[in-house]
């Protein structure tokens, strides 16, 4: 699935605009767009979130994760540092769903946990661009983020013994990505691909330290792929 997302993203980057964008001497659109000190915009996109588990003991089968596509939406505030560097703040909202399959159980009710998460994210990123080529400009981006999981159930007294899978509310991590700015007649359009990696352990262990669900988990961290479409 990650290979499919990567291929799809490359296709979006290459096919977002007509071949005229790559002509030798195109008519330049929005020539003063990158001279502004402050720039604003918004983005829409979709994601695929996964979990990375670390185990106390390698004594059995891994926990299975069935992923699905979610969606992202947010705003952009950009501060121009120089011709090639921009600082960006991209607060946003995303929804994602993951289904966990725990080994060693005989019934579906015990083995399956559905994890639905709604994150409010606050990424602070550095965008590094190349020289503009006609009406397009490649870039890479990276930085850190803080997020709050509104569906964490961290304060719930119930745990997996009652069918409740709990996660921590606050998450911190980093993201890396690349994209292309396309300068149209009226706005700048930027498809991009991002990799997102949590640094903090998100698991709230069950009340029983020997729980068959969480007893052998040392840490659980989110990782994911974003494909965003930005309009500025």
Automatic annotation (TrEMBL):
Q: Where is the signal peptide?
A: 1-23
User: Which part of the chain is the Outer membrane protein beta-barrel domain?
Assistant: 34-202
Q: Which Pfam family, any one of them, does this sequence belong to?
A: OMP_b-brl_2
Matching InterPro entries, A to Z? Beta-barrel_OMP_2 (IPR025665)
Q: In the UniProt record, does the keyword Signal occur? A: yes
Keywords assigned by UniProt, alphabetized: Signal
State what protein this is by name: PorT family protein
